[in-house]
Amino acid sequence: MPHPFRFGVTAMPVPGQGPWPDVARAVEAAGFHRLFLPENHPLPDGMTSAGVALGATVTLEVGTFVLASPLHDPRHVSWQAHSLATTSGGRFRFGIGTGRPDVAADAEALGVPFGTGSERLARVAATLDALDAADGSGPHTPVLVAAGGPKALRLAADRADTIALAISPGATPDEAEAITSALPDRVEIASSIFAIGDDVPPFARHFLGPHADGLAERDSLAWLPGDPDDLCAKLIERRDRFGISCFTVSSELMDAMAPAVQRLRDR
């Protein structure tokens, strides 16, 4: 039995977009299930911003996407996550990973060690241990782990409710399937969409780098077709083949994703 479709928007409080509570309410009104917040110092931090978004909405799930483990004390951030989950009635989703390479600069700015890959992954595990302790015998705080390498995927498969695939946008469908086919059925798999049709937003082009061109030709997991019928068919195909059921887009692509949200929501 496949996981039901879930749709999310990735956004953060940035200058010029309007009040952050209004952004959260717009995501909820558009029918998306989740609002995900990246972590980019020195922009407003994800945990504080998540709390504001939760307070501004009624049914929207809100989560970090994702916190970088070297920037956070495991016991302190697990206390925050448990608090947000408890006070929101279970609408908070705690996303964590080892951090992108450029997080090293954030760590330096904050005066904390970045650490080796193994140390950062161990910190993810320590944080999840602390969250389990904070939750105790009460409701479980949903956990999302960003993972792409073998060790991170093993940890995520064991501990996460959702795995956000952190694989190259240049990966072939066969390479992606080799990863997803090894994941347990109980885990929800999430994939980030950076382009729909011919629309590759400037931020996505910067993030994707040399992989920004030829997304459609490679059938990259970072891309979806622009025609609404083809878009929905592609989402169904990816769930059937890869087990991916949670798809996230930037706020710039909300309108392009709307047909799928309307047709496939909760199916």
Automatic annotation (TrEMBL):
GO molecular function: alkanesulfonate monooxygenase activity
Domain Luciferase-like: 22-171
Coiled-coil features, chain-numbered ranges: none
The keyword Cytoplasm belongs to this UniProt entry's keyword annotation: no
UniProt entry keywords in alphabetical sequence: Flavoprotein, FMN, Monooxygenase, Oxidoreductase
UniProt record, GO biological process: alkanesulfonate catabolic process
Pfam name, any one: Bac_luciferase
UniProt superkingdom: Bacteria
UniProt name for this protein: LLM class flavin-dependent oxidoreductase
Organism: Tsukamurella strandjordii
Lineage: Bacteria, Bacillati, Actinomycetota, Actinomycetes, Mycobacteriales
